[in-house]
Design a protein that fits this description.
Helix 5 (about 145-155) crosses helix 7. The chain has a three-stranded antiparallel sheet. Strands 4-5-6 form a three-stranded antiparallel sheet. Strands 7-8 form a two-stranded antiparallel ribbon. The protein is of the alpha+beta class and about 230 residues long. The chain has helices at about 35-40, 80-90, 120-125, 135-140, 145-155, 155-165, 200-215, and strands at about 5-10, 15-25, 30-35, 45-55, 60-70, 75-80, 95-100, 110-115, 185-190, 195. The longest helix has 15 residues, at about 200-215. The two termini are about 35 Å apart. It is globular and about 50 Å long. The structure holds zinc ion (2 copies).
Length: about 230
């Protein structure tokens, strides 16, 4: 996907981390949070968002995926695995790397931990309130640019074909990382019938930015219309 990496270090948080745009996944534009020193590590890499669907029916998760530009996509790996190996030498056999705060695109090293492979990430990692997270704080500073950028990257038709491939959607409010646990769990914006939210609180908070583009969207014919809950 032809997406330029973009880092925002203009945040008032002390320049310790950067927010990198991954591109579209699960119906929205996704970012990953990285420690400042790791942004350069991934300089020769292309970053994308990758939706992994749980085989045991526990919904889906969005991860940051990186691949070496010269070696191609086959060289791609999860960013949290690349970083764990960089800092700890390797992933112990029988273990996987999970995100402590449950936010799977928060790839600051302090947010990573090992979890036995046979235990679900839900049990290893805490289910903290995403609103308390640094990821939320970082993204909430830039939702105003997320929508127009998303619309600039894709024409309405391209966007619709992207959406068609999605089975699970994440709450569209940019800082919120709540993901549907089953298809069509979230409510759809009653006007455009496209955008999905985990709660009316998120929908209300997103409205300022969603409003200008909501009406520009052609009504998709493939998505069943659900009344706004
Ligand atoms: Zn939400
Ligand atoms: Zn809408």
């Amino acid at each position: 996907m032809k997406i330029e990496d973009k880092t925002d270090e203009s945040s008032a948080q002390g320049f310790m981390f950067g927010l990198v745009i991954l591109g579209p996944a699960a119906g929205k534009l996704k970012y990953t949070l990285l420690d400042k020193q790791d942004i350069t590590l991934l300089q020769n890499h292309l970053l994308e968002a990758y939706v992994e669907i749980d085989r045991n029916g526990q919904g889906a998760q969005v991860f940051a995926f990186a691949y070496d530009v010269k070696k191609g996509k086959e060289s791609g790996r999860y960013v949290h695995e690349i970083l764990w190996e960089k800092y700890y030498g390797g992933i112990a056999p029988g273990f996987k790397v999970v995100h402590k705060n449950g936010i799977t695109v928060d790839n600051r090293v302090e947010n990573l931990m090992l979890c036995p492979k046979n235990i679900s990430h839900y049990q290893c990692a805490g289910q903290k309130n995403p609103e308390d997270s640094l990821y939320w704080a970082a993204v909430v500073e830039m939702p105003h640019e997320a929508e127009p950028l998303y619309m600039k990257l894709f024409t309405a038709q391209e966007e619709l074909s992207l959406m068609k491939e999605e089975r699970y959607f994440e709450c569209h409010y940019p800082p919120c990382t709540k993901m549907e646990q089953r298809p069509q769990e979230f409510s759809i914006c009653g006007l455009c019938q496209v955008t999905r939210y985990c709660s009316s609180a998120c929908q209300t908070r997103d409205w300022t930015w969603h409003k200008p583009i909501c009406n520009q969207r052609p009504r998709p014919i493939f998505i069943e219309s659900y009344p706004d809950r």
